[in-house]
């Protein structure tokens, strides 16, 4: 079978699709991945074919911060990116899928149903975090409207009303999408943000039930498979990280992921001060074009990137922005988290991690050395966080997850 995978977004969005592509290749399928041109090297290092997919991710820090605004960021990304370059995205996605028997896509690729219908092939959509389902039965913390979440105890009608309003707003944002469908000879179709993004062939919910249970208002053909983990290739800095881990007590890892790190360089200076004030060793994962961090202290290691599945099991805790991939790695490693959510799914992921008893939350507006140190001290000194975190590695089975995903894909091959 020939499978085309497509991802738009950060490495956190790409890695799960890469994990599936590598697994499919291992089962003898022909695979290729379409992603932002920024990530061509990442895809090719994984040993699979690459197709560029516009729009490219803008690496300008001010632009990234603009899209990660807590309240307006999701709207801006949808209106100014996802629905602004539909012709380019559609053309690239169609080119990447033209010889495929199956198309598998991540979030924000709203032309996927059109491409699949044009080519006459089945398709699956991948949901990485619970918030993407916009379930009224299991309400999420909405980044643009977190004030709604405390009202969940009044019943699901609160969020049902909110989603009715959201559907109206979403159809306004999606006017370019409806016009684009019409230019291709298709009727306007369902709401792309709420409905059309879910495939009639099936939706892959790539998180475990202990994080969010399946709900009656999820799409009918949803397979909840669990976390997908992409085992990244070795990197030149691996030996430096390994030597640091072996040279002392388990450190605290600080990371804001592959996007947020670019517009929050002050975080790493604050993180360094917080760790040293607690007399804790620290690993700072500072991202591409890493900000300068004082490397004179032997208890602090700053590198642009490191493989979380290698370092977190040997660490005391991880401080991060709440991306679902980092949450998954922390749970797999069995260590507690301090989460500083910025936007999109991060506030909801943070809330779910806190309800599991494995994390505490710090507002991004309190992201100062004292604020980080205070929360981190509580997490490190309260054994309940560590005890709760240790319950979850045994409930995560990457091989079983990927096997279920592959069987679902293979069932669609006729």
Based on the model shown, name its key terms.
single chain, 414 residues, alpha/beta, Rossmann fold, 2 domains, seven-stranded parallel beta sheet, six-stranded parallel beta sheet, 18 helices, 13% strand, globular
What does this structure look like?
The protein is an alpha/beta fold. It folds into 2 domains: about 1-225 and about 395-410, Rossmann fold, CATH 3.40.50.2000; about 240-395, Glycogen Phosphorylase B (Rossmann fold), CATH 3.40.50. Helix content is about 40%, strand content about 15%. It contains 18 helices and 13 strands. The protein has helices at about 10-25, 40-45, 60-65, 75-80, 85-95, 110-120, 155-175, 175-185, 190-195, 240-245, 255-260, 265-275, 310, 325-335, 345-355, 370-380, 385-390, 400-410, and strands at about 1-5, 30-35, 50, 100-105, 125, 205, 220-225, 250-255, 280-285, 300-305, 315-320, 335-340, 360. It has a 7-stranded parallel sheet, with helices on both faces. A 6-stranded parallel sheet has the order 10-9-8-11-12-13, with helices on both faces. Helix 12 (about 265-275) packs across helix 16. The protein starts with a strand and ends with a helix. The relative contact order is 0.12. The mean pLDDT is about 90.
């Amino acid at each position: 079978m020939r499978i085309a995978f497509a991802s738009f977004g950060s490495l956190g969005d790409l890695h799960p699709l890469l994990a599936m592509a590598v697994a499919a290749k291992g089962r003898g399928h022909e695979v290729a991945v379409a992603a932002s041109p920024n990530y061509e090297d990442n895809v090719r290092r994984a040993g699979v074919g690459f197709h560029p997919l516009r729009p490219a991710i803008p690496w300008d820090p001010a632009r990234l911060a603009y899209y990660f605004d807590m309240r307006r960021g999701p709207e801006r990304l949808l209106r100014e990116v996802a629905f602004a370059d539909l012709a380019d995205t559609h053309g690239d996605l169609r080119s990447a899928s033209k010889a495929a028997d199956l198309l598998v896509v991540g979030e924000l690729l709203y032309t996927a149903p059109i491409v699949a219908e044009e080519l006459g092939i089945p398709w699956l959509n991948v949901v990485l975090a619970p918030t993407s389902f916009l379930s009224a039965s299991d309400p999420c913390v909405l980044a643009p409207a977190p004030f709604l979440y405390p009202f969940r105890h009044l019943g699901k009608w609160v969020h049902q009303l909110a989603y009715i309003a959201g559907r109206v707003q979403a159809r306004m944002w999606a006017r370019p999408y409806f016009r684009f469908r019409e230019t291709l000879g298709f009727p306007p179709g369902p709401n792309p943000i709420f409905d059309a993004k879910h495939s009639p062939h099936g939706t892959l919910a790539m998180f475990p039930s202990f994080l969010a249970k399946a709900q009656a208002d999820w799409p009918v053909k949803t397979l909840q498979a669990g976390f997908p983990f992409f085992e990244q290739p070795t990197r030149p800095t691996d030996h430096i990280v390994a030597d640091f881990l072996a040279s002392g007590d388990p450190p605290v890892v600080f990371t804001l992921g592959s996007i947020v790190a670019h517009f929050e360089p002050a975080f790493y200076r604050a993180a360094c001060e917080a760790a040293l004030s607690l007399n804790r060793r620290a690993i700072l994962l500072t991202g591409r074009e890493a900000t300068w961090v004082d490397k004179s202290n032997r208890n602090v290691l700053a590198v642009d990137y490191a493989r979380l599945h290698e370092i977190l099991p040997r660490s005391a805790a991880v401080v991060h922005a709440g991306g679902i991939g980092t949450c998954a790695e922390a749970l797999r490693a069995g260590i507690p988290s301090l989460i500083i959510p910025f936007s999109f799914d991060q506030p909801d992921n943070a809330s779910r991690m806190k309800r599991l008893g494995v994390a505490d939350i710090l507002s991004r507006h309190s992201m100062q050395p004292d604020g980080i140190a205070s929360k981190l001290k509580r997490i490190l000194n309260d054994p309940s966080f560590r005890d709760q975190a240790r319950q979850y590695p045994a409930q995560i089975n990457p091989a079983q997850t990927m096997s279920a995903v592959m069987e679902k894909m293979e069932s669609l091959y006729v």
